Amino acid sequence: MTPVAAAAPEARVLLKGKAGTYTASVFVATTPKRAWAVLTNYEGLAGQLPDLKASRLLKRQGSKLELEHTYQAPYTFGRRIQATLAMTETPIRQLSYTLIRGDQIRRLQGNWTITTVKGGVQLRHQIQVDPEVPAIVRPIYNDLFEANLQQSMQILKKIMEQPG
Predict the structure, then answer these.
(1) Considering the entire predicted model, what is its pTM?
(2) What's residue 3's pLDDT?
(3) Spatial CB neighbours of 107, under 8 Å, sequence gap ≥ 6
(4) Which domain holds residue 46?
């Protein structure tokens, strides 16, 4: 059996939290400007992230906007879930969002932050999610959601590290 080299600590997604309240962070070897451009390419990220099947900008007024997202992933148990989010941009540092309305979602809010660090940026996603699922399946939902969150952060890192 060939030993597998461990990923450098800065390459791994750090996930803290449980039961619907999480903070995920990862080091990205890129500029804040590039990280921001990827993060705010709302419609372009649809289909690239494992759960985001569609994203549509409904309206924008300065730094405030509304997006309609369609999610479909193992944590949605294969169902397409619609959500309308109110977003507030603080270029090129933070993006906050909160649920306006959504299918089978009681609460969804959080923020993305981009912090300049030596050699790149630290990308952090804080999220609180409360789905309308029976209590008996909540642990399964949480496990699937956590796996998706880690995968999404790795994909964003990869996209952000590509030349713009």
Answers:
(1) 0.91
(2) 43
(3) 99, 128, 129, 130
(4) 14-161
Tokens of 18: 């449980």
Q: 7 lies in a domain?
A: no
Question: Torsions phi, psi of 101, nearest 5?
Answer: -160, 155
CA Rg value for the chain: 16
Q: Which residue has the tokens 């059996």?
A: 1
Domain annotation covers residue 69: yes
What number is the average pLDDT over the span 112-131? Answer: 97
Return the half-sphere exposure (C-beta side, CA atoms, 13 A cut-off) of residue 65.
19
Q: How many domains does the chain have?
A: 1
CA distances to 1, 7, 79, 154 from 4, rounded to whole Å, are: 9, 9, 36, 19
